[in-house]
Amino acid sequence: MLKLSINGKTHEVDADADTPLLWVLRDELGYTGTKYGCGMALCGACAVLLNGQPTRSCSLPVSAVGKGKVTTIEGISGAPARAVQAAWQKLDVVQCGYCQSGQIVAATALLAQKPKPTNADIDAAMSGNVCRCATYHRIRAAIHEASAIMAGKASDKLEA
Amino acid sequence: MDKTVEISRRGLLKAGALGGMLVVGFQWSGKARAAAMPASLAPNAFVRIASDNSVTIIAKHLEMGQGSYTGLATILAEELDADWRQVMVEAAPADAKRYNNLMWGPTQGTGGSSAMANSWKQLRQAGATARAMLVAAAAQQWQVPAAEIAVAQGKLSHASGKQASFGDLAALAATMEVPKEPKLKDPKDFKLIGKQKLPRKDSKDKITGRAQFTQDVNLPGMLTAVVAHPPRFGAKLKSFDATTAKQVKGVVEVVAIPSGVAVLAHGFWAAKKGRDALKLEWDETAAVPQGTPELVAQYRALLDQPGAVASKTGDVVGAFKGAAKVLKADYYFPYLAHAAMEPLNCVMRQDKDGVEVWNGEQMQTVDQAMIASVFGIKPEQVSINMLYAGGSFGRRANPASDYPMECAHIVKATAGRHPVKLVWTREDDMRGGYYRPLYLHRVEVALDAGGQLLGWRQRVVGQSIMTGTPFEAFGVKDGVDATSVEGASDLPYAVANLQVDLHSPRLGVPVLWWRSVGHTHTGYAVETMIDEAAKAAGRDPVAYRLALLDKHPRHAGVLKLVAEKAGWNQPLKAGKKGEKRGRGVAVVESFGTFVAEVAEVTVRPDGSYKVVRVVCAVDCGIAINPDVIRAQMEGGIGFGLSAAMHSAITLKAGAVEQSNFHDYPVLRIGEMPRIEVHILPSDAAPRGVGEPGVPPIAPAVANAIAAATGKRLYDLPFKLS
């Protein structure tokens, strides 16, 4: 049995050591907000935070998580996360939505480190996250909007 | 597709009370009405108003990102005068009678950018009917004339001060007579349609990870299935040894099915490990022998031979004889995978009553019938729970129902012992076929001494998408698949002598529609060649096109708008030292929507390039949700840029060479240009926006690169250096 810290809760799981964290999250623990897209750390749909750092859960063996704190889309919180989600909603970034958990996790990690990112910062931080609907134009705008929200220029409340 | 459409639109209305709910819907035929009358509480409806004041709009179309749920809800909520915040959207069950696509005949489905166009009248009437019944209920309860009752933002009111919510009156309204011809609004009175920003109905669930995709379904006792498919198109299973696979912890069963060998396990990881541990022997005698180079050579030979005539006016041979100048180019378009972010999947469970499916599908009733055929049951015994699709771009609209059929065969082969979630890996998805076909074009243009168009000859070579499907009957005539030549056979530019012909080689590589279908290649060939013609004539590319579009005012309309907004007549700002800059334009009509795009490109000294800015003008008729329209243009431009700049599927001896996003690259955020979208005001009936943003971008960028460097690009994806 492995002990995992997911979204602040400790879970015991019975999984082979080589099982990627992604499949433990999805198939064992029911955290299905984190998506499978490529299985090779190429698309970012599976991004979670591991000790606050964006991490590709599809390529991280569960045995390597150790005592690390995993945060999924279901558990992200704090000012950057709230700002990102509010900005995403305000600008209606999503289309099919499948990649957006990963996009939001990546954007949250970016803003936690750089509250006022430039376009170049955004392109660098988000280049590992593929969106086939190509919502990139709005992702860029929403990250700037989230930055403004964090600076207190707009509300971080989600609409019902 | 057939005359059902016209008859259906005159369908009768019916309503019934269900608890405190008002149910309004349409009955399409006398026979169906008679059969359905006793079951008038069944959810054959488009709107449900509950006593809790919720308004549920039932969507017959798939939401795959294109904004259909928001658009459908807007149409109905407009005529109902609902408050946008009280409106919810629910997926309709599969039912070709109640929920058919009115542009497709007796089939329920989403494609060809038709969701808004075919739902426009239907949902306006559904909303207006519900509104009239609420008004009638208020009139009865308040003892005032109906004409004195106002409805706004989900509230009914009367000058006397009386007020009620929809929920207050839902039960009473359900007992009111159903108006046969409810009065529709004058468009000038629209409050939701055309307004700048109605929030998407699927936004919140998709930003919190709560949205349900097929990949997320988990049923009690469910097993995940991963399938070993043949390594080459046309190969078949000879034998397999599952000994090692069955030793993988979590693997429960291994079964042979027509499309390969399925490993069923507790969870994806075990199923995949089991699949990878299979020992397989394939019979490759009927496998596709060619690789891409051989196919291209075969297709090139066909470019020299006359094909089936798709379009012919005037005397093309004579036009070329009398030409002062002839332009000629051959174009290459590779196979393309849809590569939606959600790899293909399907969940299915068999019980004594039939089969239940969880999936996001573009052709529910086609899949329903195909699944039923596997089990030997009736289509209506297959119920489909529609979920969001994580993209599709045409892939989940397969007349062959490949992946739902595969799931059905697995359930059947395991005698329905477990609910099954079939999951394709990214590699399975990319190698599984059903691509945008590989096409070659040859375009020859005859110009007079003044550069005027005398003749246009275009030959297209590529597999037919519709041949061999149920769509062949209406889509293929005299050897011409309309989707292979659309955009060329109906060339908008005025030319007295036009000939378009087509070769449709038959080949065992499965092909399918891919976001904007034929326009993905015809739009490119036509719009880059007309640009060459303008250049040869020494004319401005916008002015040259406009002079040939007298009979196509809507093409001209978006072209003028985009030129104005892009500052076409002002010089482009110079780049840094050594950089070349260029601006290019293209205009393409697809699915009844007209889109013009101007691309600004910077070419660096090392031959790399960046699309810096794109200005887009769109005329899709009445703009239902302007923000969704903008989003679809933005996304369509990004999707088209992937194909222009990066993506290609190639074959080696019938086997696909690509497997994942490292060797099938797609657009990433750093390459996304700045985009400005302008919507041309229109009072024409609304048409779709899911696809039409795609076709103009590749030619606009190619024309911009040509303007910057003088180099014309005839092969996709682009290679500059």
TrEMBL record, chain A:
The lineage of its organism: Bacteria, Pseudomonadati, Pseudomonadota, Betaproteobacteria, Neisseriales. CDD domains: fer2. Residues 1-76 form the 2Fe-2S ferredoxin-type domain. Keywords: 2Fe-2S, Iron, Iron-sulfur, Metal-binding, Oxidoreductase. Pfam families: Fer2, Fer2_2. It comes from Chitinimonas viridis. InterPro entries: 2Fe-2S-bd, 2Fe-2S-bd_dom_sf, 2Fe-2S_ferredoxin-like_sf, 2Fe-2S_ferredoxin-type, 2Fe2S_fd_BS, Beta-grasp_dom_sf, Diverse_Oxidoreductases. This is (2Fe-2S)-binding protein.
Automatic annotation (TrEMBL), chain B:
SUPFAM superfamilies: Molybdenum cofactor-binding domain. Residues 208-286 form the Aldehyde oxidase/xanthine dehydrogenase a/b hammerhead domain. Gene3D superfamilies: Aldehyde oxidase/xanthine dehydrogenase, a/b hammerhead, Aldehyde oxidase/xanthine dehydrogenase, molybdopterin binding domain. Coiled coil: none annotated. It comes from the Bacteria. PANTHER family: ALDEHYDE DEHYDROGENASE (PTHR47495:SF2). This is Xanthine dehydrogenase family protein molybdopterin-binding subunit. It comes from Chitinimonas viridis. The lineage of its organism: Bacteria, Pseudomonadati, Pseudomonadota, Betaproteobacteria, Neisseriales.
